[in-house]
Amino acid sequence: MDLLICEALNQELVKILNQNANLTGSSSAEKITKDIQTYHISPEQAAQVAAKAEVRYLLLTHILPPLPSTILLNVFLGDARKIYKGKIDIGRDGMLISLPANSKSIKTKYLFGYMKFLQ
């Protein structure tokens, strides 16, 4: 298999959001940030699946919490890069992944030119 697309949630970051949800005065924010921790996979768990499946590329989508900056990418991934040695990336709006027939290449393209600076 060449590509694994998987959602991911960083529990430590969501716990911080949960602990501070009361600052917003929203009880629903506190409940949501507590509940979502129980039914999402962590970046490390996704890395374990990718390593076991021997994929070449792990693409994480439906990122929780959303990353306001790519500077936080390594914080979000935690120990995933220690577990999985292939390419790990975060899906972004306008991102196209192509697996051409009769080829081992995996091509990434962005529909929106402004996304190139995030690579």
Overview of the molecule:
The chain is of the alpha/beta class and 119 residues long. The chain has one domain. Helix content is 33%, strand content 23%. It contains 5 helices and 5 strands, in the order βαααβααβββ. The chain has helices spanning 11-20, 27-35, 43-53, 73-77, 80-83; strands spanning 3-9, 57-64, 87-90, 95-98, 107-110. Strand 4 (95-98) and strand 5 form a beta hairpin. Helix 1 (11-20) packs antiparallel against helix 2 (27-35). 15% of the residues are buried. The mean pLDDT is 85.
Summarize the structure.
By secondary structure, this protein is an alpha/beta fold. 33% of the residues lie in helices and 23% in strands.
Provide the residue-averaged pLDDT: 85
Q: What's the total count of β strands?
A: 5
* Terminal-residue CA separation: 23 Å
Helix amount, in percent?
25-40%
**What overall form do the CA principal axes indicate?**
elongated
* Order of SSEs: EHHHEHHEEE
- Beta-strand share of residues: 15-25%
